[in-house]
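Run log, item B.
One chain of 104 residues. Sequence copied directly from the ordering sheet:
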Amino acid sequence: MGNIFSILSIVLLVYVSWKYRKEMKATYKKLTVTQLLGVTLSYVVAIFIAFLFIYYGGNWAVSYITFEWLRTVAFIIIAITALSFCSKVLNTVVRKISNGVLGV
């Protein structure tokens, strides 16, 4: 089941990238090389920090919970919190790096 989800996710990513390739290309042409490197580095750092929060922080926090169903719920809450925090910080950083071209 996990393989099917991974394959469908990759297919969806390729489809969306292909569909919006002209808009993405026009957006990236507005940025300098330094801005592109900064945005790329920001994404890598955000993914790494989210991984650390979810993997190490989540496992540490749920290790104190004895009930399995409560452990699962707590881990999901920790993952959603970490992802939302990292995405908000990433959005702010990317908007500042790109002078408002990227970011919501």
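Observations after the first pass:
- Helices lie at 2-19, 21-29, 33-62, 68-97.
- Residues 46 and 86 are 6 Å apart (CA to CA).
Flagged for discussion on Thursday.
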